[in-house]
Amino acid sequence: MKKSITLVLLFVSTLFYAQGQGVIGKWKTIDDQSGEEKSVVEIYEKSGKIYGRVLEIFDASHRKDRCIDCEGEDANKPVLGLTVIKGLKKDGDEYNSGKILDPKNGKIYKCFITLESKDKLKVRGYIGFALLGRTQYWYRVK
């Protein structure tokens, strides 16, 4: 009986540990060119795909910015609350086959994200081939 309970507790704790290692959660974005902390993006799952929306913008002068250059359903929407990562699918250790929106210029790029460590996320946006793009590293908000 004690062995069974121990095994169940070990299994449950392993599940919780594995969930903590995933991409779901809140991430502090860091500008790859300036190194500045920009925002907090919440990554979540919906219908088996991964999405990310802007929860917080650190620079008070940009909190009311709108996505002026965005097209379609994102046109002129407030950046705060905007879904910037759309439709990523899990593929091994990577999430790919989705898009990422740069609200500064309204451009949409192909995207993949990879968990570099428990608290570090590699986010790559690119055009055509993954070699032609930019990489940012985001850090988990605790």
From TrEMBL:
<dbReference type="Pfam" id="PF09917">
    <property type="entry name" value="DUF2147"/>
</dbReference>
<feature type="signal peptide">
    <location>
        <begin position="1"/>
        <end position="18"/>
    </location>
</feature>
<dbReference type="InterPro" id="IPR019223">
    <property type="entry name" value="DUF2147"/>
</dbReference>
<protein>
    <recommendedName>
        <fullName>DUF2147 domain-containing protein</fullName>
    </recommendedName>
</protein>
<feature type="domain" description="DUF2147">
    <location>
        <begin position="25"/>
        <end position="140"/>
    </location>
</feature>
<keyword id="KW-0732">Signal</keyword>
